[in-house]
Design goal:
By secondary structure, the protein is mainly α. The protein is built from 8 helices and 4 strands; from the N terminus they run H-E-E-H-H-H-H-H-H-E-E-H. The longest helix has 21 residues. It comes from Cryptotermes secundus.
Length: 195
């Protein structure tokens, strides 16, 4: 969840090196190391939650095979890949989503097997759990960190797994919740119950 400050994407084309960034006292800083430190402090402050523990210790728990749910099907993987938008930036694995769309039958089988291994063991590869944060300017002459919008670059394969699990959870919720339950559900906005 934490950023890799050295990979924030400081490139000439973004203009950050050219004009620098303001520190907390309003002084303009152009030295790249200092700029990265300012960004690290800003991101830490932005996402800091006082009650969050530094690390979360989770005791491994034996789960009955029946409670795990069915294996992830190749058709679920294909649908998740098909629904991905083209031209998106890559995550730490450097695998473009467009390449995943070109996978043949053998590639899809291998990817499905990998996803099922992750699903069964609960152990995610390091590339899937780390993100690279990039700052994009909100304003043309952005001089403060707050004048930028941060985006997270996530591995496309991790997005596929997340999309499959999200769909499964949505189906499960739809089975459990009654027809009168509105809000936070697709096609069941709170205002619809008044119609």
């Amino acid at each position: 969840m934490y950023m890799k400050t050295k990979e924030l994407g400081w490139k000439e084309k973004h203009g950050i090196q050219n004009i620098g960034i303001e520190d907390s006292q309003g002084n303009r800083v152009v030295d790249q190391r200092q700029v990265l430190k300012i960004w690290e402090n800003y991101i830490t402050e932005l996402y800091d939650r006082p009650n969050w523990p530094e690390t979360l210790e989770v005791e491994p728990e034996e789960v009955d095979t029946d409670e795990k749910g069915p294996y992830i099907l190749q058709s679920e993987v294909e649908k998740a890949i098909k629904d991905m938008r083209n031209g998106k930036a890559t995550g730490d694995d450097d695998v473009p989503g467009d390449v995943l769309k070109l996978l043949g039958e053998g590639g899809l089988k291998t990817l499905t097997k990998l996803i099922n291994t992750i699903y069964e063991t609960g152990e995610w590869p390091k590339d899937f759990t780390e993100v690279t944060m990039i700052a994009l300017k909100k304003k043309t002459k952005a001089t403060k960190c707050s004048d930028h919008r941060t985006i997270n670059l996530v591995a496309h394969t991790a997005k596929i797994i997340a999309k499959i699990l999200k769909r499964r959870i949505e189906r499960k919720i739809d089975d459990i919740l009654g027809e009168d339950q509105f809000g936070f559900r697709r096609g069941k906005e709170p205002g619809m119950q008044l119609r």
